[in-house]
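Notes to self after the Tuesday call (sharing in case useful).
The group wants a holo model before anyone commits to mutagenesis around the pocket. I volunteered. Ligand is zinc ion. Logging inputs and output together so the record is complete.
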Amino acid sequence: MSNLDVVKIYDELHKMPELGFEEVKTSEYLAAELEKLGYKVTKNIGVTGIIGELKGAEPGPTLMLRADMDALPFVIDGKDECRHACGHDAHCAMALVAAANAVAKVKKGTLKILFQPGEETLKGALAVMEEGALEGVDYVIGLHIRPVQDIPDGTMSPAVNHASSTFIHVDVEGVGAHGSRPHLGVNAVETAALITNAIMAMKLNPTMAWSCKVTGITGGTVANIIPDHAKMVIDARAQTNELMEDLLAKLHQAVEGAATAMGAKAVVSFPGGVIPAAELNPDMTKLIAECIVDVVGEEKLRPEIINPGGEDFHYFARKIPSIKAGYFGVGSGAAPGLHDKDMALNPESLKNGVAVLEKVVERILG
Ligand SMILES: [Zn+2]
Ligand SMILES: [Zn+2]
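Result:
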């Protein structure tokens, strides 16, 4: 056991919240701690990411523990303020202490600790992958604190099955005209309304969770001009990657069909990409469940969580299918809820997350 205290580290990181890809102080702090522990540290991966690497004496697989570092922007009392409202400070604290306690336990293979930037931007995982951070990794483990709405404080879930998610822009091009001569134009705002109805009429497999909703329509200038342009924003989620493929194929059909019916054009784009759904390895989920039972006992092991939110961690196994991914939930009494500016959690429960990470390291590299 190291003498690092997860509650103290959490407190320190909590006081230095930084936005995605700007985690300069956080990554300096974490890199310095990893170096003190004897890890070989590579910095500035995907702008502010860090990897610590520790090799065992014997050859063996590579296990990566991944924690995200970024906080969230708020406007509080009229001022811009950055806060850790998603618990990424807790994730870093747990991964760092697990890294410290694992030093004596890595007998074979390689342990890598990835502190990833920019999870909230959903671009951090891709940024570190582009720099080869996941090359040669056999197993990757992620974790997230869970709010009171998911599981009680002190309990744990062996898998968090995030949905695939994306936001979509639709640019509708019509033809402008005088308000008194609408037959000479093509009304882009009316076209957007028809597209909205077509999207609302889409049908997907009703046994699976999905949603697709128009969250913004803008267009038009003054009352007596037929608008020639409208912009739509859509939020879409689906519980599996296959379901998302079906959703997007039908969305294209709905958008383009409705636009054509009006004589307009519509261009669909995905400015944030499409975040993949979790494809967790069942053996990893089973191993994590066993470690959870060891740490908190059978009665505090909760079922797998279905989560309609997105997590860019799932790019790892989606882009490199040989990687076996596990992702667990740490019940930590987080309330009122994640992404609430006043989110607070019970730091004592982070000790459970540390212990599970350590056990996973022992099982794979011990
Ligand atoms: Zn978040
Ligand atoms: Zn988060």
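Two things stood out.
The mean pLDDT is 97.
The pocket of zinc ion (ligand 2) is lined by residues 86, 88, 119, 144 (CB under 6 Å).
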